Amino acid sequence: MDRRSVLGAGVVLGAAVAVRPAAARAAEGPVAVSEADLAAARALFAAGAYDRLGRLLPPLLDRAEHGVRSGPAGAARAAGAWVLASQLAVKQSRTGSAGAYAALAGAAARRSGNAVVLASSARAAATPLRRTGRAHEALTLLKEAHAHLTAVSRPSAAELDAAGMVALTAAYTAAQAHRGAAARDFADEAEEMALRLARHPHGGRPSQLSAGQCVLYRIGIHRHLGDVDTALAHAARLDPQALPTAERRARAATDTARTLLDAGDPAGAFAQLRLVELAAPGEARRPSVRALTAEVAEARPGLPGLDSYARRTAPGSKPSSW
Q1: Residue-wise pLDDT tens digits, 205-227
Q2: Is 140 within 8 Å of 126 (Cβ atoms)?
Q3: CA 96, CA 106: separation in Å to the nearest integer?
Q4: Widest CA span of the chain, in angstroms?
Q5: What's the predicted TM-score (pTM) here?
Q6: 3-state SS assignment for residue 49
Q7: How far is the C-alpha of 117 from the C-alpha of 7, rounded, in Å?
Q8: How far apart are CA 209 and CA 162, in angstroms?
Q9: Quick count: other Cβ atoms within 10 Å of Cβ 95?
């Protein structure tokens, strides 16, 4: 299969892609994205420090425009920067921007020729595709990326990690499309890869894929499939401290809150929203989490502490901590 087919025309969610003015790029000079730049930006995302990441990204994206033309390594780092921009746009409910950045990431990933980078770009593209009713295209994209990663007989730890995360994203995508059998098959495959990765020496390289990550995804997968009891059973067995980042711990609490609200337990949902704020205050201020807070308030008016929580997490409020 030709890697250039990955992240093709179907990924582009809008014809226009916002870029920085040429004068601004020229003022900074033709400096490519460095590994240190990318690591710093990823650390902010992992911490849920989205305001700070938003201030860091514009010059990073300027340099990505140069880096994509500097060779495979520069293209890979440029793709990483645009993936982060897409992920941040998703957090901010800017679906059109998320799709545009994902398209740029996909183009850079193809230039890099790196299957792991291609997989990261495919995962970034899947979310805006799902949100615009194109889950089928997202699944096709993810399957292609997964095929590249698993084509070798002995994948590296990095390839196993990426393949497992692609499988989890595909499982979640299939669940949102109400394709239960496919969702469960992808989730099962990810769990098998997590077991393999746990036994695979990886020289201290941090992995995204883990047993805890698989359980976290199962909460959302089963909730989207309408199986609230199974979703809550997975939530009960998940140890949030086993998750690697604040962003992931906040996501676990958010998904559990949604499931508890579906189960008719707004008080339990609010308890989880408090955990979102404790894990990553920036997550509690996201538009979708604010909407969830409003749903809890509508379901249970006067819930003790909810009004102050809503004020504290309102847009423009001062974060309690970073």
Answers
A1: 678 999 999 999 999 999 999 99
A2: no
A3: 15
A4: 58
A5: 0.88
A6: coil
A7: 11
A8: 8
A9: 18
